[in-house]
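hey so u asked for the seq, here:
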Amino acid sequence: MTGPGRPPTLVQDGRRLLRHGVEHRILSGSVHYFRVHPDLWADRLRRVRAMGLNTVDTYVPWNWHEAERGRPVFDGDRDLERFLRLVGDLGMDAVVRPGPYICAEWSNGGLPAWLTGTPGVRLRTSDPVYLDAVASWFDEVVPRVAALQANRGGPVVAVQVENEYGSYGDDHAYVAWVHDALVARGIDELLFTADGPTHLMLDGGTIPGVLTTATFGSRPEQALKMLRERRDEPFVCAEFWNGWFDHWGERHHVRDPHDAARDVERLLDLGGSVSLYMAHGGTNFGLTAGANHDGADLQPTVTSYDSDAPVAEDGTPTAKFRALRDVFVRHPSPHLPADALDERWTQPAPRLAPRWLTPATTRPALPVLRTLGSARTAPGPLTFEELGQDAGLVLYRAHPVLPPGESTVSVIGLHDRATVYVDGELVGTLERRTAEQGVRVRGDGREVVLELLVENLGRVNYGPRLGEHKGILGDVLVDRRIVHTWESRSLPLDLLAVGDLRGDGPDGDPGTADGDGSGTAGGGASGVGLPSAPDDRLGSGDVAARGSGAAADTVATFVLDVDEPADTFVALPGWTKGFVWVNDVLLGRYWRRGPQRTLYVPAPLLRAGENTLTVLEQHAPGAHVELRDAPDLGEREEYVEVL
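ran it, structure tokens below
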């Protein structure tokens, strides 16, 4: 018998979880299909399974599937159903976390910019405007998940209601509405909530009669005590933080493998079930990385989502993988296929030999950006939301008169970072904390072309600043005088054709050739002789010294010939800040600020023969880029998040 009405696969029995009537322990790990190239989904799933896991969980980011309102996409790299079927094909269970909010250090916590840009909308509440949008989204996504529930022949054994709501708000009617919306659309497997093990969070996020799970990174005894004081239910850790993510300008967070393994074993010895967050982190490709806010400034998340996970960003099993597998072997799952722990699933993937590349062409970036995207004129600068734009850059252009002598150009409400040009010359950069202090400029009483290239560094994904708008939210001033009449040019880098940036079109300017585009070191077989990425970290300005002769705001292209595609890591020694494309795919940001010093390029992004790397440098370029055979995520810092 299949279909609605069949009993759920997982059920609560007092403090026990039963799977088809037999006591069961969930040994799970998070793998986000949206952070992994789809050609590598099966590979990554086999690798986490080889750690001894019997379950995989994933969020579902709404804005990944419905970037444009009313046009949801569920194919290609957004084929959620294919990913879930692969989980089932490998003999594993799946847990799905459809939000609608997911956090996940993902831009906007997974909420679409078209929704959070709606005037007056109250996010994650019973606001009818918000609920109407969620209902339409659930109409699309939930039936797809419901059809793949285990009691209908699929792998899905549990679905989460919202996500850590108790650390955000206390609209209990809203959380109940999300639960009922899932049930109404066919979810009849186990439903659960997940919150930190504090009274504040559990008070805000739990639902009567729905399994309460906890999220934490240490002290499982304390978490169990608090949960049992409130409910006599199975002990489930929906997220065990065995690693952590990184922000630009901080160190690379790591956690000692044996420390993480000890806490997991303590949790299991208490009779608990666990999901590792993350089992495999993946990559924030393109412009998908989110940001946090510490109350003083934005904390943008780096391109890598390696998260010091047991299966590294490139799929390599780490020392943490081995330590955790030793724990799971002592608490084995009876549901895994016989070959699940085979060592063949732990072998590293092939990598390209190291080499360096010099630019095939270079061209100034600002003149190119002035011709791309679409522009609107208004009395003041328009925000990203007013332009209908999610991520990338906006180029603002006005024609003020600069008085004789020195004056200050400042911005009220800058979100998030601006490079400032006067008559095409870069004069400085501004960030949130420096925007109202401004940059000093010199005038002679004549009209100038004032341009601000403003970057969205990542939408806040957690806390009360969720849904913050981007761009220039207030005014631009010359001293105390407001500058009016602005052209706002939308430059969504993730949507623009990179060929237009390079000047590949019939009318494009290909720039100047700087070299033959390729080179090797040590015969191409090792990294001997390659200069390492600089360890210096520029301040908030990130502006090259004037008069140094270094070009600014450059588009550079590189040619990479490959006999057979394999993984590689791009380093940009001497470069300052910008974006990298591999062929037609926006890989992500780089920033000398660190900690991340290399960008992971999975083999499926390359093709046999000629490949093109494109770099948009916002400040001062280096002389070459390097392809390395190992990642460099920066200076390490031991980190354990404790609630």
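Residues 355-364+496-637 form a domain with the Jelly Rolls fold (CATH 2.60.120). The first strand starts at residue 10 and ends at 13.
lmk if thats what u needed
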